[in-house]
Amino acid sequence: MELDKVLNTLLVKLFRDIMNIEEEALIKGEFKDITINDMHVIEAIGKGDPKPSSVIAKKLSVTMGTLTKSIDRLTRNQYVLRERSDEDKRLVLLSLTEKGIRADVHHQNFHKEMVKAAMAQFDERETRILLESLGGLADYFSEHRKNVIADGKSNQSEKL
Predict the structure, then answer these.
(1) In this structure, is residue 19 part of a structural domain?
(2) Residue 86 maps to which CATH number?
(3) 126 φψ region: left (φ > 0), alpha (ψ -120 to 50), beta (else)
(4) How far from the centroid of its chain's Cα atoms is residue 91's Cα?
(5) Is residue 156 over pLDDT 70?
(6) SS3 for 99?
């Protein structure tokens, strides 16, 4: 098999496996009433001061409509508190409830344990090589994403 096909197969398999393991490990017990996407919304909101919904949508690279559907479910299931800003009533602020904070901690602990278990198979040299390689891939995909977004905006303006 050609190297590019092997890399593609590995990346797709890793992504799917991580998503499946994450869903199986996280969406159970107290947290069985939400989806893994909801868990990522909870993570994006995080602890601390309320955050504007537009900031969360941008952080997750989703539309406001997509975020609103998730926030509706998370509010109904008491993970998220949604309120209007006192200064600007058009601004919707999001924060985590106690249940939302527990879900976020549960999610963070899962990732810590997953990384710890995965890294246990590598020695220090292999770990450095892996981190450098993954860092390069992350940089590439981040730059590629920016270019795709820029091309999309460019194509939209050409249609006008």
Answers:
(1) yes
(2) 1.10.10.10
(3) alpha
(4) 23
(5) no
(6) helix
- Could you list the residue range(s) of the whole structural domain that residue 15 is in? 3-121
d(C-alpha 61, C-alpha 19), whole Å: 18
Residue 160: band (very low, low, confident or very high) from pLDDT cuts 50, 70, 90: very low
Which residue bears the tokens 């989806």? 35
Residues in the chain, overall count: 160
**Predicted TM-score (pTM) of this structure:** 0.82
DSSP string, 8-28: HHHHHHHHHHHHHHHHHHHSS
CA distance 156 to 80: 35
As for how many domains the chain has, the answer is 1
Residue 68 lies inside a defined structural domain of this protein: yes
Among residues 53, 60, 91, 54, which one has the least CA distance to residue 75? 53
